[in-house]
Design brief:
Blueprint lengths: L7 E5 L4 H12 L3 E6 L4 H10 L3 E6 L5 H15 L2 E6 L15 H22 L3 E10 L12 H20 L6 E7 L8 H9 L18 H12 L10 E4 L16
Parallel strand pairs: 1-2, 1-4, 2-3, 4-5, 5-6, 6-7
The protein binds nicotinamide-adenine-dinucleotide.
Length: about 260
Protein backbone atom coordinates (compact mmCIF):
# COMPACT_ATOMS: atom_id res chain seq x y z
CA UNK A 1 0.00 0.00 0.00
CA UNK A 2 1.46 3.34 -1.07
CA UNK A 3 2.19 6.00 1.54
CA UNK A 4 1.34 9.42 0.10
CA UNK A 5 2.73 11.36 3.05
CA UNK A 6 4.27 14.64 1.87
CA UNK A 7 2.29 14.62 -1.38
CA UNK A 8 -0.51 16.96 -2.37
CA UNK A 9 -3.45 15.84 -4.48
CA UNK A 10 -6.29 17.66 -6.20
CA UNK A 11 -9.51 15.74 -6.78
CA UNK A 12 -12.27 17.37 -8.84
CA UNK A 13 -15.88 16.28 -8.58
CA UNK A 14 -15.32 15.30 -4.95
CA UNK A 15 -18.68 16.24 -3.38
CA UNK A 16 -19.61 12.55 -3.39
CA UNK A 17 -19.23 9.31 -5.30
CA UNK A 18 -15.90 8.36 -6.84
CA UNK A 19 -14.24 11.72 -6.14
CA UNK A 20 -15.06 11.67 -2.44
CA UNK A 21 -13.93 8.04 -2.14
CA UNK A 22 -10.62 8.85 -3.87
CA UNK A 23 -10.03 11.93 -1.73
CA UNK A 24 -10.69 9.98 1.47
CA UNK A 25 -8.41 7.13 0.39
CA UNK A 26 -5.49 9.36 -0.65
CA UNK A 27 -5.87 11.40 2.55
CA UNK A 28 -6.03 8.26 4.69
CA UNK A 29 -2.72 7.24 3.10
CA UNK A 30 -1.12 10.57 3.99
CA UNK A 31 -1.79 12.98 1.12
CA UNK A 32 -2.94 16.54 1.72
CA UNK A 33 -5.93 16.94 -0.57
CA UNK A 34 -7.72 19.79 -2.29
CA UNK A 35 -11.26 18.74 -3.14
CA UNK A 36 -13.14 20.81 -5.71
CA UNK A 37 -16.73 20.67 -6.84
CA UNK A 38 -19.54 22.95 -7.97
CA UNK A 39 -21.65 21.29 -5.26
CA UNK A 40 -21.04 22.80 -1.80
CA UNK A 41 -21.27 19.30 -0.29
CA UNK A 42 -17.59 19.11 -1.18
CA UNK A 43 -17.04 20.94 2.11
CA UNK A 44 -18.42 17.84 3.88
CA UNK A 45 -15.81 15.74 2.08
CA UNK A 46 -13.08 18.00 3.48
CA UNK A 47 -14.67 17.85 6.95
CA UNK A 48 -14.84 14.04 6.89
CA UNK A 49 -11.14 13.91 6.00
CA UNK A 50 -10.14 16.38 8.71
CA UNK A 51 -12.24 14.55 11.32
CA UNK A 52 -10.30 11.41 10.42
CA UNK A 53 -7.02 13.26 11.05
CA UNK A 54 -6.20 14.13 7.45
CA UNK A 55 -5.47 17.40 5.69
CA UNK A 56 -8.07 18.77 3.29
CA UNK A 57 -9.20 22.02 1.76
CA UNK A 58 -12.45 22.43 -0.18
CA UNK A 59 -12.94 24.71 -3.18
CA UNK A 60 -16.50 25.28 -4.38
CA UNK A 61 -16.25 26.17 -8.06
CA UNK A 62 -17.09 25.18 -11.60
CA UNK A 63 -13.95 23.19 -12.33
CA UNK A 64 -14.42 23.40 -16.11
CA UNK A 65 -13.44 27.07 -16.19
CA UNK A 66 -10.04 28.75 -16.16
CA UNK A 67 -10.87 30.67 -12.98
CA UNK A 68 -12.14 27.52 -11.25
CA UNK A 69 -8.99 25.59 -12.13
CA UNK A 70 -6.79 28.48 -11.03
CA UNK A 71 -8.62 28.48 -7.68
CA UNK A 72 -8.10 24.79 -6.92
CA UNK A 73 -4.50 24.81 -8.11
CA UNK A 74 -3.81 27.90 -5.97
CA UNK A 75 -5.34 26.13 -2.96
CA UNK A 76 -2.88 23.27 -3.43
CA UNK A 77 0.19 25.39 -4.06
CA UNK A 78 -0.43 28.07 -1.43
CA UNK A 79 -2.17 25.83 1.12
CA UNK A 80 0.01 22.72 0.90
CA UNK A 81 3.20 23.91 -0.80
CA UNK A 82 3.02 22.14 -4.15
CA UNK A 83 1.24 19.60 -6.27
CA UNK A 84 1.91 15.93 -7.02
CA UNK A 85 -1.38 14.31 -8.05
CA UNK A 86 -4.35 15.52 -10.09
CA UNK A 87 -7.48 13.41 -10.33
CA UNK A 88 -9.66 15.10 -12.97
CA UNK A 89 -12.90 13.38 -12.13
CA UNK A 90 -15.85 15.81 -12.30
CA UNK A 91 -18.47 14.75 -14.80
CA UNK A 92 -22.12 14.94 -15.80
CA UNK A 93 -24.36 12.65 -17.87
CA UNK A 94 -26.41 15.38 -19.53
CA UNK A 95 -29.54 13.46 -18.57
CA UNK A 96 -30.92 10.21 -19.87
CA UNK A 97 -32.99 11.32 -22.84
CA UNK A 98 -33.72 8.97 -25.76
CA UNK A 99 -30.65 8.58 -27.94
CA UNK A 100 -30.58 10.97 -30.93
CA UNK A 101 -32.71 13.47 -28.95
CA UNK A 102 -29.81 15.24 -27.22
CA UNK A 103 -29.92 18.93 -28.07
CA UNK A 104 -26.95 21.11 -28.98
CA UNK A 105 -26.79 22.97 -25.69
CA UNK A 106 -26.76 19.76 -23.63
CA UNK A 107 -24.19 18.16 -25.90
CA UNK A 108 -21.90 21.18 -25.57
CA UNK A 109 -22.30 21.31 -21.80
CA UNK A 110 -21.41 17.62 -21.47
CA UNK A 111 -18.31 18.15 -23.60
CA UNK A 112 -17.40 21.25 -21.59
CA UNK A 113 -17.56 19.55 -18.20
CA UNK A 114 -16.36 16.04 -19.13
CA UNK A 115 -13.67 16.79 -21.72
CA UNK A 116 -12.70 20.46 -21.63
CA UNK A 117 -12.75 20.32 -17.80
CA UNK A 118 -9.96 17.71 -17.50
CA UNK A 119 -7.95 19.56 -20.17
CA UNK A 120 -8.23 22.88 -18.30
CA UNK A 121 -7.31 21.11 -15.06
CA UNK A 122 -4.25 19.48 -16.64
CA UNK A 123 -3.10 22.66 -18.39
CA UNK A 124 -3.49 24.75 -15.25
CA UNK A 125 -1.96 22.20 -12.87
CA UNK A 126 1.05 21.21 -14.98
CA UNK A 127 3.34 24.21 -14.33
CA UNK A 128 2.99 23.52 -10.60
CA UNK A 129 3.40 19.75 -10.62
CA UNK A 130 6.50 18.28 -9.07
CA UNK A 131 8.75 15.78 -10.83
CA UNK A 132 7.27 12.30 -10.43
CA UNK A 133 3.76 13.70 -10.46
CA UNK A 134 0.76 11.79 -11.75
CA UNK A 135 -2.48 12.75 -13.44
CA UNK A 136 -5.47 10.41 -13.49
CA UNK A 137 -8.60 11.26 -15.48
CA UNK A 138 -11.93 9.56 -14.98
CA UNK A 139 -13.14 8.26 -18.34
CA UNK A 140 -15.83 5.56 -18.54
CA UNK A 141 -16.53 2.23 -20.20
CA UNK A 142 -19.04 4.35 -22.13
CA UNK A 143 -16.05 5.98 -23.84
CA UNK A 144 -14.53 2.64 -24.89
CA UNK A 145 -17.43 1.56 -27.08
CA UNK A 146 -21.12 2.28 -27.57
CA UNK A 147 -24.03 1.19 -25.43
CA UNK A 148 -23.16 2.23 -21.89
CA UNK A 149 -24.41 5.81 -21.83
CA UNK A 150 -26.00 8.73 -23.66
CA UNK A 151 -24.30 9.76 -26.93
CA UNK A 152 -22.82 13.07 -25.73
CA UNK A 153 -21.59 11.43 -22.52
CA UNK A 154 -20.03 8.50 -24.38
CA UNK A 155 -18.37 10.76 -26.97
CA UNK A 156 -17.01 13.01 -24.22
CA UNK A 157 -15.50 10.03 -22.39
CA UNK A 158 -13.99 8.69 -25.64
CA UNK A 159 -12.40 12.13 -25.85
CA UNK A 160 -11.00 11.67 -22.35
CA UNK A 161 -9.33 8.44 -23.48
CA UNK A 162 -7.50 10.33 -26.22
CA UNK A 163 -6.80 13.28 -23.93
CA UNK A 164 -4.95 10.86 -21.64
CA UNK A 165 -2.92 9.47 -24.55
CA UNK A 166 -2.19 12.85 -26.14
CA UNK A 167 -1.18 14.63 -22.95
CA UNK A 168 0.97 11.68 -21.85
CA UNK A 169 2.86 11.92 -25.17
CA UNK A 170 3.08 15.73 -24.96
CA UNK A 171 4.75 15.31 -21.56
CA UNK A 172 7.52 13.10 -22.89
CA UNK A 173 10.61 13.60 -20.74
CA UNK A 174 8.84 15.78 -18.17
CA UNK A 175 8.60 13.07 -15.46
CA UNK A 176 4.82 13.35 -15.15
CA UNK A 177 2.55 10.46 -16.10
CA UNK A 178 -1.03 10.70 -17.36
CA UNK A 179 -3.45 7.78 -17.10
CA UNK A 180 -7.17 7.21 -16.82
CA UNK A 181 -9.69 4.91 -15.23
CA UNK A 182 -12.77 3.72 -17.09
CA UNK A 183 -15.31 2.70 -14.47
CA UNK A 184 -18.21 0.42 -15.25
CA UNK A 185 -21.51 0.96 -13.47
CA UNK A 186 -20.72 2.31 -10.01
CA UNK A 187 -23.20 3.14 -7.24
CA UNK A 188 -22.88 6.92 -6.79
CA UNK A 189 -25.16 9.96 -6.85
CA UNK A 190 -24.82 9.88 -10.67
CA UNK A 191 -26.46 6.44 -10.86
CA UNK A 192 -28.75 6.80 -7.82
CA UNK A 193 -31.90 6.96 -9.96
CA UNK A 194 -31.07 3.67 -11.60
CA UNK A 195 -30.30 1.96 -8.29
CA UNK A 196 -33.35 3.49 -6.57
CA UNK A 197 -35.61 2.44 -9.42
CA UNK A 198 -34.25 -1.12 -9.45
CA UNK A 199 -34.67 -1.40 -5.68
CA UNK A 200 -38.19 0.04 -5.80
CA UNK A 201 -39.14 -2.66 -8.32
CA UNK A 202 -37.36 -5.43 -6.40
CA UNK A 203 -34.95 -5.80 -9.34
CA UNK A 204 -31.65 -4.96 -7.65
CA UNK A 205 -30.34 -8.39 -8.63
CA UNK A 206 -30.65 -7.34 -12.30
CA UNK A 207 -27.98 -4.66 -11.83
CA UNK A 208 -24.82 -6.06 -13.35
CA UNK A 209 -26.57 -9.12 -14.75
CA UNK A 210 -24.47 -8.89 -17.96
CA UNK A 211 -21.30 -8.28 -15.97
CA UNK A 212 -18.91 -11.21 -15.34
CA UNK A 213 -18.75 -10.01 -11.72
CA UNK A 214 -22.57 -10.19 -11.58
CA UNK A 215 -22.81 -6.85 -9.77
CA UNK A 216 -22.20 -3.14 -10.07
CA UNK A 217 -19.17 -1.55 -8.46
CA UNK A 218 -18.57 0.66 -5.43
CA UNK A 219 -16.71 4.01 -5.46
CA UNK A 220 -13.93 2.58 -3.27
CA UNK A 221 -13.10 0.07 -6.00
CA UNK A 222 -12.40 2.94 -8.41
CA UNK A 223 -10.54 4.92 -5.75
CA UNK A 224 -8.15 1.99 -5.25
CA UNK A 225 -7.33 1.98 -8.96
CA UNK A 226 -6.84 5.76 -9.02
CA UNK A 227 -4.55 5.55 -5.98
CA UNK A 228 -2.47 2.87 -7.67
CA UNK A 229 -2.17 4.80 -10.94
CA UNK A 230 -1.22 7.92 -8.96
CA UNK A 231 1.42 6.06 -6.97
CA UNK A 232 5.05 5.25 -7.71
CA UNK A 233 3.99 1.59 -7.86
CA UNK A 234 2.65 2.47 -11.33
CA UNK A 235 5.83 4.35 -12.30
CA UNK A 236 6.05 2.71 -15.76
CA UNK A 237 2.33 2.99 -16.56
CA UNK A 238 1.69 5.97 -18.81
CA UNK A 239 -0.91 6.99 -21.39
CA UNK A 240 -3.22 4.11 -20.43
CA UNK A 241 -6.87 3.93 -19.54
CA UNK A 242 -7.60 1.10 -17.12
CA UNK A 243 -11.10 -0.36 -17.24
CA UNK A 244 -12.32 -1.00 -13.70
CA UNK A 245 -15.59 -2.66 -14.53
CA UNK A 246 -15.72 -6.22 -13.23
CA UNK A 247 -14.77 -7.41 -16.71
CA UNK A 248 -17.72 -5.84 -18.54
CA UNK A 249 -15.67 -4.33 -21.35
CA UNK A 250 -13.63 -7.50 -21.89
CA UNK A 251 -16.45 -9.39 -23.53
CA UNK A 252 -18.55 -9.33 -26.67
CA UNK A 253 -22.27 -9.93 -26.27
CA UNK A 254 -22.82 -13.69 -26.31
CA UNK A 255 -25.61 -16.18 -26.59
CA UNK A 256 -25.71 -18.10 -23.29
CA UNK A 257 -25.88 -21.53 -24.94
CA UNK A 258 -22.43 -20.99 -26.46
CA UNK A 259 -20.80 -19.97 -23.20
CA UNK A 260 -18.70 -22.57 -21.41
N1 LIG B 1 -21.10 6.17 -11.48
C1 LIG B 1 -20.79 5.50 -12.61
O1 LIG B 1 -21.40 4.47 -12.94
C2 LIG B 1 -19.69 6.02 -13.49
C3 LIG B 1 -19.24 5.18 -14.51
C4 LIG B 1 -18.22 5.63 -15.34
C5 LIG B 1 -17.67 6.88 -15.15
N2 LIG B 1 -18.14 7.69 -14.14
C6 LIG B 1 -17.52 8.99 -14.00
O2 LIG B 1 -17.01 9.12 -12.71
C7 LIG B 1 -16.90 10.51 -12.38
C8 LIG B 1 -17.49 10.72 -11.02
O3 LIG B 1 -18.87 10.46 -11.08
P1 LIG B 1 -19.68 9.76 -9.89
O4 LIG B 1 -20.21 8.50 -10.44
O5 LIG B 1 -18.88 9.74 -8.66
O6 LIG B 1 -20.95 10.70 -9.78
P2 LIG B 1 -21.16 12.05 -8.95
O7 LIG B 1 -22.30 12.73 -9.62
O8 LIG B 1 -21.24 11.74 -7.52
O9 LIG B 1 -19.82 12.85 -9.19
C9 LIG B 1 -19.63 13.84 -10.17
C10 LIG B 1 -19.29 15.12 -9.44
O10 LIG B 1 -18.89 16.09 -10.40
C11 LIG B 1 -19.40 17.32 -9.96
N3 LIG B 1 -19.48 18.26 -11.07
C12 LIG B 1 -20.24 18.20 -12.17
N4 LIG B 1 -20.03 19.26 -12.95
C13 LIG B 1 -19.10 20.03 -12.33
C14 LIG B 1 -18.48 21.26 -12.63
N5 LIG B 1 -18.74 21.92 -13.75
N6 LIG B 1 -17.58 21.75 -11.75
C15 LIG B 1 -17.32 21.10 -10.60
N7 LIG B 1 -17.87 19.93 -10.25
C16 LIG B 1 -18.76 19.40 -11.12
C17 LIG B 1 -20.78 16.99 -9.39
O11 LIG B 1 -21.27 18.02 -8.56
C18 LIG B 1 -20.49 15.69 -8.68
O12 LIG B 1 -20.16 15.89 -7.33
C19 LIG B 1 -17.62 11.25 -13.51
O13 LIG B 1 -16.67 11.76 -14.42
C20 LIG B 1 -18.43 10.16 -14.16
O14 LIG B 1 -18.72 10.47 -15.49
C21 LIG B 1 -19.13 7.28 -13.31
Amino acid sequence: MTDFTGKTAIITGAAGGIGRATARLLAARGAAVVVADVNADVRDTASLIREAGGQAEAVVTDVATDTGAEAFVRAAVEGFGGLDILHANAGITGGFVPRLDEDTATFLEVLRVNLLGPWIAIRTALPHMRQGGAIVCTASVAGLRAGAGPIAYSASKAGVVNLVQSTAMALTGRGIRVNGVAPGLIETPMTALLYDDARARGREDRIGQLNPARRGGQPQEIAEAVAWLASDAASYVNGQVLAVDGGLSAQHPFTPKWSL
